[in-house]
Automatic annotation (TrEMBL), chain A:
Family: Belongs to the acyl-CoA dehydrogenase family.
Organism field: Agromyces bauzanensis
Domain of life the protein comes from: Bacteria
Acyl-CoA dehydrogenase/oxidase C-terminal domain location: 197-314
Name of the protein in question: Acyl-CoA dehydrogenase
Keyword Oxidoreductase: yes
Gene3D superfamilies (UniProt xref): Acyl-CoA dehydrogenase/oxidase, N-terminal domain, Butyryl-CoA Dehydrogenase, subunit A, domain 3
Single GO term (MF): flavin adenine dinucleotide binding
Keyword annotations of the record: FAD, Flavoprotein, Oxidoreductase
One Pfam family named in its UniProt record: Acyl-CoA_dh_1
Cofactor: FAD
InterPro entries xrefs: AcylCo_DH-like_C (IPR036250), AcylCo_DH/oxidase_C (IPR009075), AcylCoA_DH/ox_N_sf (IPR037069), AcylCoA_DH/oxidase_NM_dom_sf (IPR009100)
Automatic annotation (TrEMBL), chain B:
GO cellular component, as recorded: plasma membrane
Organism whose genome encodes this protein: Agromyces bauzanensis
GO molecular function: acyl-CoA dehydrogenase activity; flavin adenine dinucleotide binding
Domain Acyl-CoA oxidase/dehydrogenase middle stretches: 134-227
InterPro entries found in the cross-reference section: Acyl-CoA_DH_CS, Acyl-CoA_Oxase/DH_mid-dom, Acyl-CoA_Oxase/DH_mid-dom_sf, AcylCo_DH/oxidase_C, AcylCoA_DH/ox_N, AcylCoA_DH/ox_N_sf, AcylCoA_DH/oxidase_NM_dom_sf, Mycobact_Acyl-CoA_DH
Highest taxon above the source species: Bacteria
Protein known as: Acyl-CoA dehydrogenase
PROSITE patterns: ACYL_COA_DH_1
Residue stretches making up the Acyl-CoA dehydrogenase/oxidase C-terminal domain: 285-381
Length: 347, 384
């Protein structure tokens, strides 16, 4: 199997690093609720990054999720918080998949997506308060419906995750909007994509924690030598590397399966749950050990470590708590039964 | 690029051809299990010795798979062998008899053996009839392998070997083992120099095998005493003085294999059986463990992909082994925490759990302790 297409373009990677690092240099992250820097968003749009994976005939850049993932990872690496994944990989994808038209022609509009309940309410909608439009999905007797709603028509109660990223509660008057039918499988795909986006972000944050620690220990001197030479410290780092590898491998496997066999591939739900469980528990070890390595300075606002450790903790519980993913894997194991357990894992 | 990106090779999915092979093995194993005449066990690769089963597997082409046809093997790929072995270990099939010969000795013979040695040993290994041990550890050389004291002295036409080897699994039933011995005096500035490997047949004069009984009363380990055992030049293994390079060159294969992940998988399966029957509650910890085993399967698949491509995988293999052997043990402990004198579980679950907690300490010791492996990982990241 030729899997070259799973490697993002080197020029794109370099460009992404350049864009996010120069933005980051000029804009230290603030505490409190984050807002979207519209100027930066416009810059991303000019570079074709706002709808990176959208079809070209719909104003997108026609890139794949491999590039989409690279963009999300670059943002994590530089600690830049933007709704790139929500706008492009989730809302943008579902809009195009359903064939609903955007509410306006503004190319750099910001969108997010929410699956609301029968009352039109959804909690913890990422970036809703900063969005121009919200793609709303809801269930009626006949099946799922979706519509893109201007943010102005949505009642919003602000909320944030521990990073300050908007995670707002929205309420939509479902009676007042006309929805287009959506296949249940499309909604299932949206859930998979959403969950896996967070696994990608958690994995990237864990890798960055490792990289930061690897830069630090050779230069931090205690007892007359770099702490890198202390076996106890080496063990902390080895365990960070091990858990991070598990997070990356499980996320990669689900991602690769989705790209090779499609987002409706048999068994993908299980692999996504596995990735979320593995990445979620990996965060426990990595966050603990990384802070242990850095000592007190790692707990300060000034130090960059929290941009990765707090991010990993914030994201690992989004689109489902770690425990809920564990339970999903448990249920899959029980349903597979003793005769099917191994086939569930190795297929 | 980040540090971990350099450690783990990219994900490697199961191909259709590999899935077909797995299906064949699954069908065979299901048939065998239905027959019910064999023990399906925890840690079966170390302790379930069944020579008939080894021969049956060989007849189907699943022993010595990567050995070229001209030496009696099947000429298949490393990844195909990996798939078959995973399937065997997932059910706890009794593979101990041929395990070392198949995993370690055959590839080493192919790499370092003389033409005559290959012709002498490989066909019988691939037939599932020739069983081997490993002669590395000594009473005073565990993790610090370079400190071995077993001595090889040059004599007319060969070498004489004197010393003792310990933890030699299956030596009381095996035919031969490969002994690591010091063939030149220790140079403290180059401790890894002066080591060589020798093929010793266990029936030879001067070889004495004494059992070491495990804490649960089982016997699979032995101590092997070598008292001036003569090894002709034709049974020197590889090059004199290159023993260290030879034993360390294959560690990626040994450390990332399914036996570092699946030793307790039959127990995990039996837990699921009990959950499905309503004897145990469904809890999140089970899912955490199943997810971890799945992630480990994916990691070892990724490493096997790298090894197949001829890439070095020492560090990623160490990562798999540290986490895999810890997780195998976590499965044992999870089961043990569920069971008590008030439990209404299957007797099979009780049997497998007892077995697993007894075998558990060995998981993180054999094939490189977790402590040594963390050092390997640290070195791989440039800290040593």
């Amino acid at each position: 199997m030729n899997e070259d297409f799973l490697t993002p373009d080197a020029d794109l990677l370099e460009m992404l690093d350049g864009v996010f690092s120069s933005y980051r240099e000029a804009h230290a992250p603030l505490a409190g609720r984050l807002t979207l820097d519209r100027e930066f968003w416009a810059e991303l749009d000019e570079l074709g990054l706002v709808r990176l994976t959208g079809a070209e005939d719909k104003g997108g850049s026609g890139a794949s999720w491999v590039e989409g993932r690279a963009l999300v990872e670059a943002a994590v690496r530089h600690g830049v918080r933007v709704p790139a994944a929500e706008n492009d990989l989730l809302a943008g994808w579902v809009r195009d998949a359903i064939g609903i038209d955007g509410v306006d022609a503004v190319s750099n509009a910001v969108s997010t997506v929410a699956i609301v309940d029968g009352n039109g309410v959804a909690k913890n909608v990422p970036w809703a308060g900063e969005a121009d439009t919200i793609v709303v999905v809801w269930l009626v007797d006949e099946g799922y419906l979706a519509a893109e709603v201007p943010a102005a028509r949505v009642r919003l109660t602000p909320g944030e995750n521990m990073l300050g990223e908007p995670r707002d509660t929205i309420a939509v008057e479902l009676d007042s909007i006309i929805g287009s039918p959506v296949a249940a499988e499309t909604v299932a795909e949206l859930r998979r994509r959403s969950a896996l986006v967070r696994a990608v972000q958690v994995s990237a944050a864990l890798e960055c924690s490792l990289d930061l620690a690897l830069e630090y220990v050779p230069v931090r001197v205690q007892f007359g030598r770099p702490i890198a030479k202390l076996q106890a410290v080496q063990n902390l780092l080895a365990d960070i590397a091990t858990e991070t590898s598990l997070a990356r491998s499980s996320t990669d496997s689900a991602f690769t399966k989705a790209l090779v066999e499609g987002w409706s591939a048999e068994g993908l739900d299980f692999l996504v749950a596995v990735a979320r469980s593995c990445a979620g528990h990996a965060a426990s070890v990595v966050v603990r050990n990384a802070h242990q390595v850095f000592g007190a300075v790692g707990t300060t606002r000034e130090h960059r470590l929290h941009e990765y450790t707090r991010a990993a903790l914030a994201w690992r519980g989004e689109y489902g708590a770690v425990r809920s993913w564990d339970l999903q894997v448990s249920a899959a194991a029980r349903n597979a039964g003793p005769g099917g357990l191994w086939a569930l894992i190795a297929r | 690029m980040s540090g971990t990106a350099n450690i783990m090779p990219p994900a490697s999915l199961i191909t259709d051809a590999e899935m077909e092979l797995r299906a064949e093995v699954r069908a065979f194993l299901a048939e065998q299990r239905a027959g019910g005449r064999r023990v399906w066990a925890v840690d079966s690769w170390l302790s379930s010795w069944d020579e008939d089963f080894s021969r049956e597997l060989a007849a189907r082409g699943w022993v010595g798979m990567t050995v070229p046809v001209e030496y009696g093997g099947r000429g298949r790929t490393f990844k195909e062998r990996f798939a078959v072995v995973e399937e065997l270990l997932a059910v706890g099939a009794p593979v101990a008899a041929h395990w070392i010969a198949d995993r370690q000795i055959a590839p080493s013979l192919l790499k370092f053996g003389t033409e005559e040695q290959k012709r002498a040993y490989l066909p019988r290994i691939a037939a599932g009839e020739s069983y081997w041990g490993i002669g590395m550890s000594e009473p005073n050389s565990g993790s610090d392998l370079a400190s071995v004291r077993t001595r090889a002295d040059r004599v007319d036409g060969g070498w004489t070997i004197t010393g003792s080897k310990v933890w030699t699994s299956g030596a009381h039933r095996a035919h031969a083992f490969i002994v690591l011995a010091r063939s030149a005096p220790l140079d403290t500035d180059a401790r890894h120099a002066g080591l060589s490997q020798f093929i010793v047949e266990l029936a030879q004069d001067g070889v004495e095998v004494r059992p070491i009984v495990s804490m649960n009363g089982d016997q699979h380990f032995n101590e092997v005493f070598l008292d001036g055992v003569f090894v002709p030049d034709s049974r020197v293994f590889g090059e004199i003085g290159r023993g260290w390079q030879q034993v360390t060159s294959e560690l990626g294969f040994e450390r990332s294999g399914p036996e570092r992940v699946l030793s307790t998988f039959p127990l995990l399966t039996e837990i699921v059986q009990n959950v499905a029957e309503g004897r145990l509650d469904l809890d999140a910890d089970l899912g955490r463990l199943v997810a971890r085993v799945t992630g480990l399967h994916q990691m070892s698949m990724a490493v096997s992909g790298a090894l197949q491509r001829g890439e070095s995988a020492d560090v990623s293999a160490a990562v798999v082994k540290v986490m895999g052997t810890t997780t195998e043990g976590d499965v044992a402990d999870y089961a043990d925490l569920l069971l008590g004198d008030g439990s209404d579980v299957t007797s099979e679950l009780t049997r497998l759990t007892t077995r697993a907690v007894d075998q558990r300490p060995g998981f993180t010791l054999r094939g490189g302790t977790s402590e040594v492996l963390r050092g390997v990982i640290a070195r791989g990241m440039g800290l040593r």
